[in-house]
Amino acid sequence: MWTELKAPSLAEMEATAYEIFKGLPTEFRKLCEGVIVRVDDFPTDEVLDEMECESEFDLLGLFQGVGLPQQSFGDVARLPNMVWLYRRPILDYWAEHDESLGHIVRHVLIHEIGHHFGLSDDDMAAIEARAD
Predict the structure, then answer these.
(1) What are the distances in angstroms from CA 98 to CA 9, 59, 104?
(2) Could you give the C-alpha distances from 19 to 23, 68, 82, 83, 84, in angstroms and in order?
(3) What is the full per-residue pLDDT of the chain (132 aa) written as tens digits?
(4) Using CA atoms, how far apart are residues 30 and 96, in angstroms rounded to an integer?
(5) I need a labelling partner for 76 at 20 to 30 A (CA). Which of 47, 69, 96, 101 fits?
(6) 1-7, Cβ contacts within 8 angstroms, sequence gap of 24 or more
(7) Which GO terms describe its molecular function (predicted)?
(8) β-strand 82-86 against 36-40: which pairing, if any?
(9) Residue 90 in contact with residue 62, Cβ under 8 Å?
(10) Alpha-carbon distance 43 to 66, whole Å?
(11) 13: how many CB neighbours lie within 10 A of its CB?
């Protein structure tokens, strides 16, 4: 059977991310109203420069947008908040660690959304535990 194993495509990983997202606690998902989840193979060169990454494999995910603490009702229209998952760095991390791919994707989703919304590491750990 090992000859049939393959890394998920971009579309398969994005579908997996949405399934994992639907399994997160309701109150956490409510924080994410309107957030778009996207999967790409690697971050753009601009993102790598901005995040001061040494390699295109350094970044597993990224939140782009305006988090809840920074939003106000007087804001002008802006682009939607997005969470990017970077497939190739995630797969590389998966190959080097003893964790399931789903666990890694869930962890990246929670942390990219959570940090930007001002959640502490303890808050995010509790969300992960409840999602198990």
Answers:
(1) 21, 19, 10
(2) 7, 24, 17, 15, 15
(3) 566 778 999 999 999 999 999 988 888 888 777 888 999 999 999 999 999 999 999 999 999 886 554 555 555 556 778 899 999 999 999 999 999 999 999 999 999 888 777 788 898 888 888 876
(4) 33
(5) 47
(6) 7/87, 7/91
(7) peptidase activity
(8) parallel
(9) no
(10) 19
(11) 21
Distance from C-alpha of 92 to C-alpha of 79, rounded to nearest angstrom: 30
Question: Beta-carbon neighbour count of residue 116 at 10 Å?
Answer: 21
| SS3 of the chain | CHHHCCCCCHHHHHHHHHHHHHCCCHHHHHHCCCCEEEEECCCCHHHHHHCCCCCCCCCCEEEECCCHHHCCCCCCCCCCCEEEEEHHHHHHHHHHCCCCHHHHHHHHHHHHHHHHCCCCHHHHHHHHHHHC
Residue 17 corresponds to which amino acid? A
